From TrEMBL:
Native source organism of the sequence: Deinococcus psychrotolerans
Protein's name in the database: DUF1156 domain-containing protein
NCBIfam families cross-referenced by the UniProt entry: DUF1156_antiphage
Domain of life: Bacteria
Ranges where the DUF1156 domain occurs: 11-72
Stretches the record annotates as Disordered: 333-356
């Protein structure tokens, strides 16, 4: 068993794991680690747990039992899901499910109501509980998760499950940490050590430590290091640490609030307290010479609050009037009369518009701010203006304390308070910069960091914050100095304050249910500058407090280190490396690092406070590929021969896979398995045509040194693809499928990589391939073989309901359409899946086959939607083919309601081949007819019925 293949090399419940990962991601701030601070691309904890257990669990000669035990350990089996059930199912859903059950199961719960419609009977508590469980059992897996806690919310399997687990594995564990240690001792002679050399937000080391492994985490970036340390030592420090950190945080808030109140900078003369400050940028219009306030819309709150610009000719500017309880007409004018449209100044007087680009160049041009600039100078191109404050009035009514909001234009008294804020900041500015209470570092040029410099002239990180923000955030630093654990908690609090309260916090009228609110700085992955932005006073900062649940974890270590020089030996390396510049972590994290770069050496004497941008592994050129080889060769050297690695990445391009194959091959690794898990929600990073899944590549040290020849590879790849697909199909469950269409396609990639990385290939030097420059349009041998593997898979996976003899006679585009319908039937609407399918089948110019090509809602056109488009031979992707004529005949039947019309078309167009092709046409019609039975395919109902009618007419047609 010591050398037995790991279970993850044979099986992973990808569909269920995808559903669990999606549920975890959709929890947003309810995720275990997100409360610590913003990081990009944290992997779901359930994915890490499944990966590590999959590496530790051995394969046995009973694959079905292996899979069942794996699900029990993850509490993803039926019994585990029932234990996780935590929310009641609503009555309408209960009735919907009951009506699908056999009468013997539902009759005790259903009766006929007064209106003649079925309804659920009145039940006592015991029967209600039984009914809830009955309905829960009959829900699809993903829908069950709506009513269930996440696996991490349970301590693990129950006693009954542990009995089955131990019997199967020959273990004696009663908890996940006990099992992890026992399996580690069996394989390595010690508790397994799990490493992550690109720790990022800390998901991998945190979950590894939580379920009982010794965790090692390293990252080049100190922001990532701090977040990972906090995950392991604050969240993982247990209830006592969590309470101490949160108590200290409350005390800091109280101290800052007391000081702000004493200064009188957030209260007006009526005693109201500020709830939001709204600013806009002003610029001189070269056409009218007016100072024009800039905003894409003057709607402040969707619930009836807007601004109106009123010309002040004497001062060549505009007054900004705030209107509460605005009429629909006033709201529409405010929405339509924005002064920035399509990156152009659109003046309120209706004069000529001017590109913002031109405005930056007027006068002496955009000035680069100096260190102590915290507001624009009078002669700067862009000025800033406080134009609205949302106040909260507290009053008593009927013996109860109540509050109400007021939106008011800025007054002279408000401007005096603004001046007081600036005065208070200037008194402390130099001292606070020296102590690191506010940023002082210059912004280093880069892809993301050039944006604020180019668009506003902000040259230092403190320029991204207003005086009020710098003063208040600095107070949190001033009052937050304490012992290490508490001080780190405070640094993370300031981290969150910075993200939610900067000059880059856009004001949106729809936030807060229509009362308006500010977005986070990093609502996407750019340093976007806005013409209208918000500042949060203390009232609105309380929501930024760090809230986290506590866990007691085992041994863990965090270092700041370049992955290329890592010298720690780990049994398993699980890494999520940067790839193809999806996020420039080094650049965007400097926004946060600027707030605590001087504190890190104090808190961690062995660490540094520099982002080490020059050393970051990034890009997609030869230098990047060579860096990746160095990283993974180093990790391979620091791994035992019976260890393994898992590399996580999110690309579906054959060229990227080919590069990765070369990288891993050159690093001395071989691929043993690959799985794809849907881990991404429809975020700014992954929406649209981007891949919404994470590929897990399982890797072992390559031992074979015997070279293979190119002509041997394709045959081996074909055999391996077929073996992989047969294995997956045997493990799949038609009622609750483990694998989707994308999984089968990507399995072909994995199979190809297994063959390509198993041995050296005669005539190919991976080091040379990696370092040489790419020629545009060039297809390497490795890429060609990978693409052929996908083609093998697509042709092997004939859609269910299509006979093989028929399939083999079809053109690539006919196959694409039919296979695409199967993809659609599986509720797969991501364009990347259809693009990958086209590559595998060899179909091009297929756009006109779509009924909807919008990202994440992609589907093929129905026969009626296609109409005559691309019907004739030589026109369109399927012109003149048997399938295209069949589709037109179905559409004709739908249009007329008479299947004879469709039959006559086929007889006329197919001519003398009609009788020979009739059986093939009937096979196609049978398949099209099945689309009418697909849930959610309402657009197919009429054409599916027409296909059925037409098939009947053809079946009865006689010479």
């Amino acid at each position: 068993m010591r050398d037995a293949p790991a279970l993850i090399e044979q099986y992973l419940p990808v569909a269920k794991l995808s559903a669990e990962s999606y549920k975890e991601r959709k929890a947003v701030s309810g995720q275990t680690l997100t409360g610590l601070g913003k990081w990009w691309g944290r992997k779901p904890l359930i994915l890490v747990r499944a990966t590590l257990l999959g590496l530790l669990l051995p394969q046995t000669d009973d694959a079905k039992a292996d899979a069942d035990i794996f699900l029990k350990l993850l509490t993803m089996d039926d019994a585990g899901l029932e234990r996780r059930r935590s929310k009641p199912i609503k009555a309408d859903k209960v009735l919907e499910v009951l009506l699908t059950l056999p009468p013997e199961q539902s009759r005790r719960y259903v009766m006929t109501g007064p209106d003649g419609q079925p309804m659920v009977r009145a039940l006592d508590k015991a029967d209600k509980d039984a009914l809830q469980m009955l309905v829960f059992k009959h829900l699809p897996y993903a829908e069950k998760l709506t009513y269930a806690d996440r696996p991490e919310h349970l301590s693990g399997p129950d006693k009954a499950a542990w009995k089955a687990i131990n019997a199967h594995l020959g273990t004696q564990a009663q908890s996940l940490p006990e099992l992890v240690e026992e399996l580690g001792l069996r394989r390595f002679g010690h508790r397994p050590r799990v490493g992550d050399a690109f720790a990022g937000g800390g998901s991998i080391p945190f979950e590894a430590a939580r379920i009982g492994a010794d965790a090692y985490a390293s990252d080049l970036n100190p922001v990532a290091g701090l977040l990972t340390w906090a995950a392991l030592n604050l969240v993982g420090g247990g209830p006592e640490v969590a309470e101490r950190v949160q108590k200290a945080q409350r005390e800091v808030f109280e101290a800052v609030d007391k000081q702000v109140t004493a200064w009188g900078i957030e209260h007006n003369e009526q005693g109201w307290r500020a709830d939001a400050y709204l600013y806009c940028v002003e610029v001189r219009d070269p056409e009218s010479s007016y100072m024009v306030p800039l905003a894409p819309s003057w709607v402040i709150a969707d619930k009836g609050v807007c601004a109106e610009l009123v010309a002040d000719p004497a001062n060549k500017r505009y007054d900004i009037r705030i209107i509460e309880n605005a009429t629909a007409a006033q709201m529409k004018r405010a929405k339509d009369n924005g002064t920035v449209k399509d990156a152009r100044l659109t003046p309120p007087n209706g004069g000529p518009s001017t590109p913002i680009r031109v405005l930056r160049e007027q006068g002496s041009g955009l000035r680069q701010w100096e260190n102590d600039d915290v507001v624009p100078r009078p002669d700067d191109v862009f000025q800033e203006r406080l134009y609205c404050i949302r106040w909260v009035e507290t009053y008593s009514e009927g013996g109860k304390i109540k509050t109400r909001r007021h939106y008011r234009a800025s007054t002279e008294a408000d401007q005096r308070r603004e001046a007081r804020v600036l005065e208070l900041l200037r008194e402390r500015f130099a001292d606070w910069q020296e102590k690191g209470f506010i940023p002082s570092s210059r912004i280093e040029s880069g892809y993301n960091t050039d944006q604020p410099m180019r668009e506003r002239g902000w040259s230092h990180w403190q320029h991204l914050f207003t005086p009020r923000q710098l003063l208040v955030h600095g107070l949190f630093q001033y009052f937050g100095e304490s012992e290490k654990v508490l001080s780190i908690g405070n640094q993370l609090l300031v981290y969150r304050l910075a993200n939610w309260n900067s000059r880059l916090s856009q004001w949106l009228s729809s936030q807060g249910g229509g009362i308006g609110g500010g977005k986070a700085t990093y609502y996407n992955n750019a340093l976007n500058t806005f013409f209208n932005f918000s500042v949060r006073p203390m009232q609105a900062l309380y929501s930024t407090q760090i809230v986290f649940n506590s866990d007691n974890i085992l041994k863990a270590q965090v270092e700041l280190k370049d992955a290329r020089s890592n010298d720690t030996i780990c049994d398993f390396w699980i890494t999520d490396p940067p790839y193809a510049d999806a996020v420039n972590y080094d650049e965007v994290s400097e926004f946060f690092l600027a707030w605590y770069e001087k504190h890190i050496p104090r808190l961690f004497p062995e660490w540094y406070g520099d982002s080490k941008r020059a050393l970051a592994v990034k890009g997609n050129d030869a230098g990047f590929r060579q860096s990746m080889v160095e990283v993974y060769a180093n990790l391979t050297r620091h791994m035992p021969d019976n260890g393994a690695q898992v590399v996580m990445f999110t690309h579906q391009d054959a060229a990227v896979w080919a590069d990765l194959a070369l990288i891993l091959w050159a690093a001395g690794l071989r691929v043993t398995a690959a799985w794809t898990i849907s881990t991404e929600t429809d975020s700014a990073l992954k929406a649209g045509n981007y891949v919404q899944g994470t590929v897990l590549l399982v890797l072992r040290k390559r031992i074979s040194t015997e070279a293979v020849f190119e002509d041997e590879l394709l045959h081996e790849i074909e055999q391996e693809v077929v073996r992989q697909l047969d294995t997956m199909k045997a493990l799949d469950d038609s009622s609750e499928p483990n694998f989707g269409d994308a999984d089968y396609q990507l399995a072909a990639y994995a199979a190809a990589l297994r063959v390509l990385t198993a041995n050296p290939i005669e005539g190919i030097d991976p080091e040379r391939e990696i370092s040489r420059p790419r020629v545009k349009g060039e297809v390497s041998l490795i890429q060609k073989l990978i693409e052929q593997a996908v083609a093998i898979a697509v042709n092997y996976l004939i859609p269910r309901g299509i006979e093989r003899d028929l399939w083999l006679t079809l053109t690539p585009h006919e196959r694409y359409y039919l296979k695409g319908l199967e993809v659609e039937a599986h509720a797969e609407y991501r364009s990347g899946v259809y693009m990958e399918l086209a590559r595998g089948i060899g179909a091009s110019d297929y756009a006109e086959l779509f009924g909807n090509s919008k990202a994440n809602t992609v589907r093929l056109a129905t026969p009626s939607e296609l109409g005559r488009k691309g019907l004739e031979k030589g026109r369109g992707p399927m012109g003149g083919t048997l399938l295209r004529h069949t589709l037109f005949a179905v559409g004709k039947t739908s249009e007329s309601g008479d299947p004879q019309e469709g039959k006559n078309w086929l007889r006329h167009e197919l001519g003398s081949s009609y009788w020979a092709d009739r059986a093939r046409v009937m096979g196609l019609l049978t398949y099209l007819e099945s689309m009418g039975r697909i849930e959610g395919a309402a657009h197919w109902q009429e054409d599916a019925h027409s296909a059925s009618l037409l098939r009947g007419v053809l079946e009865n047609d006689r010479v």
